[in-house]
# Entry
Amino acid sequence: MNVAVVGTGYVGLVTGTCLAETGNSVTCVDNNPEKLALLQGGGIPIYEPGLDVLVKRNREAGRLTFTGDLAAAVRGAKFIFVAVGTPELPNGDVDLKYVNAVVDGVCAALKELPKGAPGDRIIVLKSTVPPGTNRAVTERVIANGCSHVSVASNPEFLKEGAALEDFMNPDRVVVGVRHELVGEALGELYAPYCTVDRPFLVMAPESAEMTKYAANAVLATKISFINEVANLCDAAGADINAVRKGIGHDQRIGFQFFAPGPGYGGSCFPKDVLGLIAAAQRMGVKLRVCEAVDEANDAQKKVLFGKITKHFGGQLAGKTFAVWGLAFKPKTDDIREAPALTLIDALLAAGAKVKTFDPEAAKNVKAIYGDKLQYAADPLGALDGATALVLVTEWPEFRGPDFVEVKKRLAAPVIFDGRNLYAEQEHHLLEAGFTYYGIGRGKN
Ligand code: NAD
# Structure
């Protein structure tokens, strides 16, 4: 089947590549000339494990091409995926200007072509958009003279860092359609990815749009909830790891997305929680839980800095802090809303210096901070000249450092562990002379 994917970011590039992998002919479109030139030259603008191999294979097989020519890409396509950004407006609402620009461009290219039956030509909204957007886009498409073009909603649930696995073997695929034939066409496209226990779910567009926000909001809620319990553990002298075991074995609760940390970041949870609150407000509904989740997360992003300030009696000026991990989570180079950046800003504002290491995200941080920070070539290198180590992102390479070497290099052997990565080894660290702070380990 012929597919066009507009937007070659984390979602669009993965979608296009994975659709090509099962034999479709895919044209990816982007309007960022630098990104496009890189992709056309065989490069990959983002880090996502395994993506380079899959892109190469499908490019070489002639199933995956990249262009800046939207009109040419969509004219021959049955499915036109819209995977552009939907950033947050200052009031928390979702900015749909990129989605609308693509829809207008698609319509301009399609309106002169012969009209077909429903399902012959489908704009598939993959970007995360608030409930009601499919309806508004459908009206826009009709106003643009393209009543023969259908508009489906197909929210994406992939996780950066495991995006290929998530797309190829999804827990479920959700589509929102107004016409049975559109659902059937999408069912055919997604058949290679779905099984009995990985179902293809067809529903109304409003329900599909809501499903995406509800999914992200519940995950964000779990994180904010366990973060607050962890903070209470610190105050009460309880150990969050013990508490997690105690509650997680209850099958109604479980362990997933229930680990405390420095607050959630990324391009989705913060924006989507606010987007849902704003959409609800427009409909006259108050989402008190989501409001609290967002507020708790803002506070959580300051917890590590609070522990550091307290330990050093507020005397941070002139000290250097080693920060391990900059990406908002491991196995990605994405630093959007990353908690490491909140910490770094606070350290710099307090007059401290920061020496960082991240396996993939340093270049993106450097593009923002330049020489305000130091960038080490390896984890241990970040410790040289540093007073203390602050672990923010749990990359696998940070799991088992040589603690003898860590102690030798740090001016004061203090570890602030934002992910409780070394919590189970705490007594060894204390024996070795470290001072150790985790999140929710019974001390502030
Ligand atoms: P991104 O910023 O990485 O990529 C968006 C791309 O769209 C960019 O390459 C940009 O140049 C391109 N673009 C913008 N306007 C364009 C236009 N008019 N024509 C062609 N290209 C255009 O964004 P992303 O992280 O891939 O997210 C895309 C959408 O998917 C968002 O709505 C997001 O909320 C949603 N989403 C993201 C994730 C994730 O993990 N990143 C997961 C699920 C859903």
About this structure: The two ends are 57 Å apart (CA to CA). The pocket of nicotinamide-adenine-dinucleotide is lined by residues 6-12, 29-32, 35, 83-86, 98, 101-102, 127-128, 156, 158, 160, 267-268 (CB under 6 Å).
